[in-house]
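Bench log. Compound arrived from synthesis this morning; before running ITC I wanted a structural hypothesis for how beta-D-galactofuranose sits in the protein. Inputs:
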Amino acid sequence: MAATLALSTPGVSFAAKKLVIGFAQTGAESEWRTANTESIKQAAKDAGVELKFSDAQQKQENQIKALRSFIAQKVDVIILAPLVTTGWDTVLMEAKRAKIPVILESRNVEVKDTSTWTTFVGSDFVEEGRRAARWLLDHTKSTQGDVNIVELQGTVGSDPANDRKKGFEEVIKTNPRYKIIRSQTGDFTRAKGKEVMEAFLKADAKKINVLYAHNDDMAIGAIQAIEEAGLKPGKDILVIGVDAVKGAFEAMIAGKMNVSVECSPLLGPQLMEAAKKAAAGEPLPRWIKTIEGVFPAEVAAKEFPNRKY
Ligand code: GZL
């Protein structure tokens, strides 16, 4: 009774309790990830949210540890950028039992009990893969003969790597001219992208017509390898990336890259909106999808000044 009286006492205001969010980030593997972290930290500040941040340095076990720590601290909401799609069933069930809503951002998961996460805020990676392939088929429609493609995959087992591969292959299989002759993970990093492209070139330099990289960072690393092999990236070997980060625009303006399929990291405001609703027990769509485009080299110089990441 006292609590009710106190709450209804005129002239007494209670500051709304500050929302506390635990955010388990993958790491800082790419330009995209850095922009994603900045967007979420800034949006938390703007929203007056207390953000507990954990950088897992690309290790799933560190993310699982961070989630257990957030649960122990009884945060209001958890945001998770799941490094890979599997291995989350147990810890997400622990969050569910603790009645802490989990919002997935930038990558999705595969779990038996899908009620253990509330919503996924991120892109349609299959469509991104289709867009990359559609650009390639259109850009090479007037050429003759086989189009040999090497593919730099993202982190093994990650949602974007799985689905960007799936979408790309779905489109190129419509035309037998297009063949993926080599495919290997570059783990979404510039360094690994360069290293793997060097190996591709050593084995098949003369046969490679196209590089399809699951993110721009690996494409930028591969561009260095192509140049060091005495070839012209963007001309001798077409270079296709995903993300549309600043580095890709710079490479396209320099004539070393041909196209980047946009994948926006600026998810902070949508995530804060979703977290407030989740904390209040309000309904949320299962997928809050980001709207994205495709940026070929021809528009890079004009578009570059408008870019926000
Ligand atoms: C996409 C994100 C991917 C980016 C990469 O939502 O998970 O991870 O495409 C990043 O650049 O490393």
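What the model suggests: Residues 1-8 have pLDDT under 50 and may be disordered. The CA atoms of residues 262 and 274 lie 23 Å apart.
ITC booked for Thursday regardless.
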